[in-house]
Automatic annotation (TrEMBL), chain A:
Residues 881-894 have a biased composition (Basic and acidic residues). This is DUF625-domain-containing protein. The keyword Nucleus applies. Transmembrane segments: none annotated. Keywords: Nucleus. It holds the Pfam family PP4R3. It comes from Aspergillus coremiiformis. GO terms for cellular component: nucleoplasm; protein phosphatase 4 complex. Residues 11-110 form the PP4R3 EVH1-like domain. The keyword Nucleus applies. Residues 707-894 are annotated as: Disordered. Residues 768-779, 840-850, 860-880 have a biased composition (Polar residues).
From TrEMBL, chain B:
It comes from the Eukaryota. Keywords: Hydrolase, Manganese, Metal-binding. This is Serine/threonine-protein phosphatase. It catalyses: O-phospho-L-threonyl-[protein] + H2O = L-threonyl-[protein] + phosphate. Residues 191-245 are annotated as: Disordered. Belongs to the PPP phosphatase family. One of its GO terms (molecular function) is protein serine/threonine phosphatase activity. Residues 108-113 form the Serine/threonine specific protein phosphatases domain. It comes from Aspergillus coremiiformis.
Length: 894, 431
């Protein structure tokens, strides 16, 4: 049967490479031709220097995985397992040879299916894979074993066959004795071979093999071999020393079930394999197999513990105040801490069960014990456990806290607040601040408490807590919390502020900023009643610049809320004067503080926040005029003039909200920003019962009225304070009526309108052309660039994946303690994460029980969330993608 | 020997310092960084480095290749942490050096200097492993918030001086450098130059290199035949051309930023209007500076990373022209050859983590910019102290010349100097 492929007519200059020991060895440069000899398509390369020497002669068979990479590379694997590559001088030459190869393969395939016994390599392969045999496990056979394994690992079929053989013949236990023999003989080459054999075995990433590897009698032999890594010929690791050390396993209360004990040990070994032994060589599928094994072990361990009543009883009895065994208590805290850390990786129901059982046995008492512990490390650990609880279900924790208040006990919040005030260890202080932040988060609607409490773990929960009660508790706690801030009132100067005070105030202002952003209405009362805004303003004058920055951030947040109450707070006091003082102090130097101030005024300018523009220009006009090194302040004056009707008429677009400003859309410190949300029931109720409502509306009225008056052209700027808040009800009323018929329509939307229309507004402004000076001059990026190819670098960090998918399940990692992250994680874990984990779980379960076919799928899916180019991809990915090509090169290097 | 010097010595040996010292270090660093502008002005000579990613031993290799601090001035363009197993040692050492020699070393923020990213890509995990709690991670993240967003290198020479003191001069070619502007040296792990090339800027045809992001055998055979091939091919195939063309006595400034440009930023001065003390946002100017990538497109494109944008050659050209820049140096993307110039040399990616993730097989590079002594060392711009532009750019832009660039390409540290990289295992376990 004649092949009809037309061999390329001329010779292409090319370099021939062969993969040897993970390095591409250069076999020389020559000229490449495609030929058909004896009806077999072949590639020839003749040496450039010695035309008689043939650098390469290879037969093209229909099954060889030829791949074209980039424009000038063809890569394939020889039947003997050697990886080869042709690197063409020109893309054109590469294309010609590639076409030849492709054409030949297609022909061969069609002939084979038509029943022509042209090439029986395929059936040979199939047979040999099904009955793959490794030579007997003897030292002399090691090179052969290594070779066969490498070759078989190239294809999935080979890997499956190899796995089956290894499991069926119990090959690994037979290999183990060789390690000791080779060590006795001090035969480094054999040890190196054993090491690469073990690597290949593990990277087959077969569950059964990996489970075998970590069993009691096998593990030391396996890691023993892995101590002799041929890539580090002068090094020997000491894995055995670490793993043989039985004292690393601490048992506070003995776990009697031998199966669970076994699982604990195996999990520990798996983690060591993952983190240390295989850290450099793990590919994605193996990584996810290891993680799945660890995960399922942990599920069983945790399940055993939480359902083991006697065990828990004994565990928590360690904390009996009558017991004096301090070391044992510390160990028990560590134990609980580790449980909590593991629980973070579990699915929500399992976690909920564990915590519910812990709590019913007295977890809060343990937390109370730790946070008063003299050792800061213990305090840290205790708060970590609390943060894990908060992370899991803040509403539940809050429920317990409120219950305590109801029963007239000291709630945990009060304890934490007191500690926050006194704590001298700055790390612990930081954690405390985060915990308080989440515990008191005014945002969380308490009604949910009941809805979310399942029948199983709702028993200890309090019944419906009225919102008034919640508000009261929040007010009381906040009052207590901000006492130190309030006390600043009596200090004339803050020049002598101590280090500890600076740290405390930094946290307090940060928490306050968080509250305001989370729930501006609930926070209002606190800020108003306690007179906190002037205190924060005082902090603008401290010598410590980072504290100044934090205070500045508070006001920046107030401004961004565009709430008349908070605007009034700022215009009432000399806040802007103090901020301008900072500008004066720092200008025209280019530093962080200066930039932060400029950004604040830029924001006012950009958003055209009238009351503030009016206030600032009228009160501090001279100061503004003197700042000329940036245009911001002159622009503000211009804005003011326009409002007065002096300048050109302001374009209507200036009134529009520019959602495109980075500071607006994204809150500082990574805390969640949920926008000005629609009012939920709790807020609604709050409004209906609060006098603030009146004042609030009055503010709007006052506001617009004032603006209207200005526009109507009073020649002399009004000098009196713009908004008389909140003490002048009658006045406000009068203004309110006056505002009725005015040109309110053209004004900036009132705060209330914003509240209800934000989602739409956001959507609109996302597409509207930015009207701000910052963005008006630049090209607007396209909405969609459909033909854009996806780039395949593995170093790509993809932000999307962080928020949309679960992170790679890692048994040792845990969530960060910052409240912002807590909030974020919380929302993820309830929704998508849980679902995704479930999906992964099911799929991996499929691996354990199912046949070979689902295995591939399981691996792909379970590794997908993390294959965000974090690790080089393995050979398991889609064929013909660039990524795959590179992945294969890696796979071999492993 | 001061505490700081002792800490530096300890960290250089890849041993961690106690938590209390970390805290003090972070506070000191904070005091320093708060005084820096969002765009730091740096005078040439300076050596610009890209991503480090916790590859401590390769960072030491970098110092061997580029010269030690404080003898050489360094500018690191972020991504100190994550992925490698020694993020803590790497970042703390750099921070110590910053505190010890504030004028000699500049650190700017990368997208990995973020709470959110570090929790996923390893730094958070590493802090927990090595210190037992997240406190050190918190301190470091606090410092991240204070890091500058970019740097402007001023007074770079358009000509290259002979290789600096870092190397043994006998190992390199002593060919006199006339007006050659681009030089590449490939160093092996012993610091010996194994390959070096010069490219006179004038008249060199622009040869925009093809996608260099794949791990593969070398592909540019025409320029390498006869050379000892490196594992992943010779660097220096990234080509360059002349942007501005005409001659003048000065070079434009070099903007250094981790990711790239932002559609919200049309002048360098706009960067100064950002309140940078915050977690890296998911969008907006600050995010873009840390996340964007250049690409062979026109205008702006969506980034597959989900943050930042892709920007094309026209954007770079326009931005450089408008801001009097001769070059944008950035990091953020793995380049197999260690560096890659794009858009007629208007932008360069510098990558300083060799054998990235201990497996990618790439080489790394650093970029040296020499000092222009022709004006007696004076520079035309400074740290905002005077003449901050008020948004109106002068139109006379002719004569901005590209600075002379010397790329030193290096490989991963020799294995005998670093042992087997691995994470720290847990000391004790209960479960």
């Amino acid at each position: 049967m004649a092949l009809e492929v037309q061999p390329p007519s001329d010779r292409k200059r090319v370099k021939v490479y062969e993969l040897r020991d993970n390095d591409w060895f250069d076999r020389g440069t020559g000229f490449c031709t495609g030929q058909i000899l004896d009806d077999e398509p072949r590639i020839f390369v003749e040496s450039e220097d010695e035309p008689d020497r043939v650098l390469l002669e290879t037969k093209i068979s229909k099954d060889d995985g030829y791949q074209k990479q980039q424009e000038t590379l063809i890569v394939w694997t020889e039947p003997n397992g050697t990886d080869m590559a042709l690197s063409f001088q020109e893309a054109e030459g590469c294309a010609v040879i590639w076409n030849f190869v492709n054409g030949a393969q297609q022909q061969l395939t069609s002939m084979a299916t038509a029943g022509f016994p042209l090439d029986d390599a395929f059936s040979d392969d199939l047979e040999s894979y099904q009955s793959i045999m490794l030579p007997a496990p003897e030292l002399g056979n090691l090179p052969d074993i290594d070779h066969v394994m490498r070759a078989a690992s190239m294809t999935q079929a080979g890997r499956d066959a190899l796995s089956k053989f290894v499991i069926r013949e119990e090959y690994i236990p037979k290999l183990i004795p060789l390690v000791a023999v080779a060590e006795d003989l001090e035969s480094l080459p054999d040890l190196h071979r054993l090491c690469s054999i073990m690597k290949s075995l593990i990277l087959l990433n077969d569950n059964t093999i990996i489970e075998t590897v970590v069993t009691e009698h096998i593990i030391l032999g396996v890691v023993g071999a892995l101590e002799y890594d041929p890539e580090f010929p002068t090094h020997k690791a000491n894995h055995r020393q670490y793993l043989a050390d039985q004292s690393r396993y601490k048992e506070v209360v003995p776990i009697k079930d031998p199966l669970i004990r076994h699982k604990i040990q195996c999990t520990w070994r798996l983690q060591y394999l993952k983190d240390v032994v295989l850290a450099r060589i793990l590919d994605d599928p193996t990584f996810s197999v290891l993680n799945s094994l660890i995960f399922f072990n942990q599920v069983e361990i945790v399940n055993h513990i939480q359902s083991n009543g006697p065990f828990l009883k004994e565990l928590f009895s360690v904390f009996d105040p009558r017991s004096a065994d301090a070391k044992r208590k510390e160990d028990a805290v560590q134990f609980l801490h580790q449980c909590a850390a593991i629980a973070k990786n579990l699915q929500a129901p399992a976690r909920a069960n564990l915590f519910a059982n812990f709590i019913s046995h007295g977890l809060f008492a343990v937390i109370a014990f730790t946070i008063k512990h003299p050792n800061p490390a213990m305090r840290t650990t205790g708060i970590d456990i609390l943060v894990a609880l908060l992370d899991h279900d803040p509403i539940m924790v809050r429920g317990y806290m409120l219950k305590a208040v109801n029963e007239k006990k000291t709630p945990l919040t009060d304890t934490l607040i007191d500690l926050l005030h006194m704590e001298s260890d700055l790390g612990v202080k930081n954690q405390l601040a985060d915990a308080v932040k989440v515990l008191l988060d005014p945002q969380v609607p308490l009604q949910d408490t009941m809805g979310r409490a399942g029948p199983d773990y709702s028993k200890p929960r309090p019944n419906i807590i009225s919102d008034v009660f919640v508000q009261n508790h929040f007010d009381e706690s906040a009052k207590r919390l901000f006492i130190p801030l309030k006390r600043l009132e009596n200090r004339a100067s803050l020049n002598d502020i101590t280090f500890q005070e600076v740290a405390l105030h930094a946290h307090l202002v940060d928490i306050l900023t968080f509250f305001v952003r989370q729930h501006l209405y609930r926070s209002r009362a606190v800020i108003h009643n306690e007179g906190l805004a002037p205190r924060v303003a005082q902090l603008l004058t401290v010598p410590q610049k980072h504290l100044k920055l934090i205070a500045l951030k508070f006001f920046r947040t107030l401004i961004s809320l565009q709430d008349t109450f908070y605007q009034a707070l700022m215009t009432h006091n000399n806040t802007f004067g103090l901020i301008l003082d900072i500008v004066y102090e720092t200008m025209p130097r280019d530093n962080l503080l200066n930039s932060a101030c400029l950004e604040l005024f830029e924001f006012i300018k950009r958003e055209n926040i009238k009351p503030i523009v009016l206030h600032v220009v009228e009160k501090y006009g001279e100061k503004l005029r003197n700042i000329t090194y940036v245009s911001t302040f002159q622009d503000l004056i211009l804005r003011y003039d326009q409002m007065q009707g002096y300048g050109t008429e302001v374009e209507p677009t200036l009134y529009s909200q520019d959602e495109g400003t980075p500071a607006r859309r994204v809150p500082p410190n990574g805390q969640r920003w949920q926008g000005v949300r629609e009012m939920d029931a709790a807020e609604e109720e709050y409004f209906n019962t609060s006098d603030d409502e009146e004042e609030w509306q009055h503010d709007n009225g006052a506001n617009t009225t004032m603006a209207t008056e200005m526009q109507n052209g009073s020649a002399s700027p009004v000098v009196k304070p713009l908004v008389d808040y909140p003490d002048d009800d009658e006045d406000d009323d009068a203004m309110d009526t006056k505002a009725e018929g005015s040109e309110e329509q053209t004004q900036q939307p009132s705060a209330q309108q914003q509240v209800t229309s934000t989602p739409d507004a956001a959507a609109e402004s996302a597409v509207e052309t930015p009207s701000t000076p910052v963005s008006s001059t630049v090209q607007v990026p396209p909405e969609r660039l459909s033909e854009k190819r996806r780039r395949e670098e593995e170093d790509d960090d993809e932000l999307v994946k962080l928020s949309s998918g679960p992170k790679r399940r890692s048994s040792t990692s845990s969530n960060p303690g910052s409240a912002g992250m807590l909030a974020k994680k919380r929302s993820v874990s309830i929704g998508s994460l849980a679902a995704a984990e479930k999906g992964a779980t099911q799929n991996v379960l499929g691996t354990v029980t199912g046949s070979a076919a689902p295995k591939r799928i399981a691996i792909n899916i379970s590794s997908k969330p993390s294959s965000e180019t974090d690790y080089p991809d393995s050979a398991a990915s889609t064929p013909n993608s660039e990524k795959e090509n590179r992945g294969e090169n890696h796979g071999e290097s492993g | 020997m001061s505490d700081l010097d002792r800490a530096i010595a300890q960290l250089r040996a890849c041993r961690l310092i106690p938590e209390t010292q970390v805290r003090e270090l972070c506070y000191k660093a904070r005091e320093l960084l708060i005084e820096e502008g969002n765009v730091v002005s740096v005078d040439a000579p300076v050596t610009i480095c890209g991503d480090i990613h916790g590859q401590f031993h390769d960072l030491m290799e970098l110092f061997r290749v580029g010269g030690d601090v404080p003898d050489t001035n360094y500018l690191f363009m972020g991504d100190f942490v994550d992925r490698g197993f020694y993020s803590l040692e790497s970042f703390l050492l750099l921070l110590c050096l910053k505190v010890r020699y504030p004028d000699r070393i500049t650190l700017i923020r990368g997208n990995h200097e973020s709470r959110q990213i570090t929790t996923v890509y390893g730094f958070y995990d590493e802090c927990i492993r090595k210190y037992g709690s997240a406190n050190v991670w918190r301190h470091c993240c606090e410092v991240f918030d204070y890091l500058a967003l970019g740097a402007l290198v001023l007074g770079a020479s358009s000509e290259l001086e002979p290789t600096g003191p870092a190397l043994n001069d006998t190992t390199q070619s002593t060919m006199p450098i006339d007006s050659g502007e681009l030089e590449t040296e490939v160093l092996n792990s012993k610091g010996e130059v194994t390959y070096s090339s010069y490219r006179p800027r004038q008249g060199v045809p622009s040869d925009v290199s093809t996608d260099a992001r794949n791990i593969s055998p070398p592909r540019d055979i025409s320029s390498t035949t006869g050379q000892t091939p490196l594992r992943s091919g010779p660097p220096g195939t990234g080509a360059s051309g002349e942007g501005a063309g005409s001659y003048s006595s000065r070079t434009g400034a070099v903007l250094c930023v981790h990711g790239g440009l932002s559609p919200l930023i049309d002048t360098v001065d706009k960067i100064r209007l950002i309140d940078r003390k915050q977690e890296v946002p998911h969008e907006g100017a600050m995010c873009d500076l840390l996340w964007s990538d250049p690409d062979e497109i026109d205008g702006w494109g969506l980034s597959p990373r989900g943050a930042g944008f892709l920007f094309g050659g026209d954007i770079v050209k326009q931005f450089n022209y408008r801001n009097d820049l001769s070059l944008i140096a950035r990091a953020h993307q793995l380049v197999m050859e260690g560096y890659k110039e794009m858009f007629d040399g208007g932008i360069v990616t510098v990558w300083s983590a060799p054998n990235y993730c201990y497996r990618c097989g790439n080489v790394a590079s650093i970029l040296e910019l020499g000092e222009d002594t022709s004006n007696g060392g004076t520079v035309t711009r400074s740290n905002g102290d005077y003449e901050r532009s008020n948004g109106i750019m002068t139109t006379d832009k002719f004569g901005v010349r590209s600075p002379g660039r010397r790329y030193r390409v290096f490989e991963a540290a020799a294995q005998d100097t670093r042992g087997m990289p691995a994470k720290k295992p847990v000391a004790d376990y209960f479960l």
